[in-house]
Design goal:
The chain is of the alpha/beta class and about 375 residues long. It has helices at about 5-10, 20-25, 35-45, 95-110, 120-140, 165-180, 215-235, 265-280, 305-320, 340-350, 365-375; strands at about 50-55, 75-80, 110-115, 115-120, 200-205, 240-245, 250, 285-290, 325-330, 355-360.
Length: about 375
């Protein structure tokens, strides 16, 4: 496999796509990893889908069958070595090629300081988001029939007001990944001056409850968020992330890589957080995207009662007039049931937003496509 360092550094690496799932990149933040060999070994173990026998003591039950250490040996097989991850193109990659790629990634994004291995976080975020973005766009874009070449658009009637380098960069990306021959499209144009009112405050909420582990839904959500962050960053918009389960936590973009599924879906607490988050901002140009697979649940509170609390919180949030979308995610074998649809539809109605049902593997393209539609 050719060395990847030159295209990692390139401004427009659309020739090929990054194929590692987010959970593998997340290993780079493990403080116990000190060498590239450790990173490669942990990554290969996580990727390997081969069932593994678990070695546990086998102590047959003794009357009156209260032996808590007893385990049925026919069930001592682990089907997955770690998190359920999206293997995608990794299935067809040889071990040697994959080891070489992992080595280059580690070398490219790590450095030594004070005798410890540290990660170039900003470069890593840009690299991951960029490649996930290309993968999403390549999967959804089609060649347009209209091949008329245009330059000036409705956004700008004079070349003097156009930021040429940034506009050209965005135009090249669109043409390469979308097969569009238009020299400059309307959405490519970046002006030198943008008023603060044109900049959107965007909040993406990621459900990290236990059910999001099923079918690799959280893995696809990680990928979608990182590609969306890259897309918005290129448009000079500010994106912030929050994870929600039993806790509501504001997180940095790179923290998306290390999110783990735990707990229940505290939607009411999330919407209360969103209300406080946007109430502190002066602009009215706010957007909220909620990525979830479940309906509101809280330990110790009946579902119907907690839904009532959630709807009241959503109605209060509606007063802020934010653009809100709930992306209800499903995966093969974990389809959305009628109660789930009903609950989330009620929340959207109270919120004044829109409910979108989406397959996990298409989440990145849908999220980016929604934002493009807003523009």
């Amino acid at each position: 496999m050719e060395d990847i360092r030159h295209w990692c550094m390139a401004a427009l690496p659309y020739e090929r796509s990054c194929f590692l799932p987010p959970s593998i990149f997340g290993l780079l933040f493990d403080e116990a990893i000190d060498t590239e060999d450790e990173f490669i070994a942990k990554a290969m173990e996580k990727i390997d889908p081969t069932p593994k026998n678990l070695y546990v003591p086998f102590n047959p039950p003794v009357f009156p069958f209260d032996n808590k250490d007893f385990e049925d040996p026919f069930y001592l097989v682990e089907n997955s070595p770690g998190d359920i991850i999206d293997l995608e193109l990794l299935k067809d990659i040889s071990d040697d090629e994959l080891s070489s790629y992992l080595k280059d990634v580690f070398v490219r994004f790590s450095y030594k300081s004070g005798g410890k291995i540290k990660i170039k976080k900003r470069e890593l975020l840009h690299y991951i988001g960029k490649n996930y973005f290309y993968m999403a766009k390549k999967g959804q874009q089609k060649v347009k029939k209209d091949k008329r070449k245009t330059f000036l658009t409705v956004k700008s009637r004079s070349t003097a007001s156009i930021h040429i380098p940034e506009t050209t960069r965005r135009a090249i990306i669109r043409r390469k990944v979308g097969g569009d021959d238009a020299l400059i499209a309307d959405d490519d144009v970046v002006n030198f001056k943008k008023s603060s009112g044109q900049r959107a405050d965007i909040l993406v909420a990621i459900d990290t409850s236990m059910s999001m582990e099923q079918g690799g839904k959280l893995e696809f959500a990680r990928k979608a968020c990182l590609s969306f962050h890259y897309y918005e960053d290129s448009r000079n918009a500010r994106v912030e992330f929050v994870s929600f389960n039993d806790r509501i936590d504001k997180i940095a973009p790179l923290d998306v890589l290390t999110l783990k599924p735990v707990g229940m879906t505290h939607t009411a607490e999330l919407l209360d957080f969103v209300f406080r988050h946007f109430s502190q901002r002066g602009s009215e140009n706010h957007e909220l995207y909620v990525i979830t697979d479940g309906y509101p649940q809280h330990e110790g509170i009946e579902d119907a009662q907690y839904l009532t609390v959630t709807l009241k919180t959503a109605q209060r949030l509606k007063r802020l007039q934010i653009k809100a979308k709930i992306l209800l995610v499903q995966a093969p074998g974990y389809e959305i049931n009628s109660n789930n649809m009903k609950y989330n539809r009620l929340i959207c109605e109270s919120l004044g937003g829109e409910l979108i049902r989406v397959d996990a593997d298409g989440l990145s393209g849908v999220l980016i496509g929604i934002k493009a539609g807003f523009n």
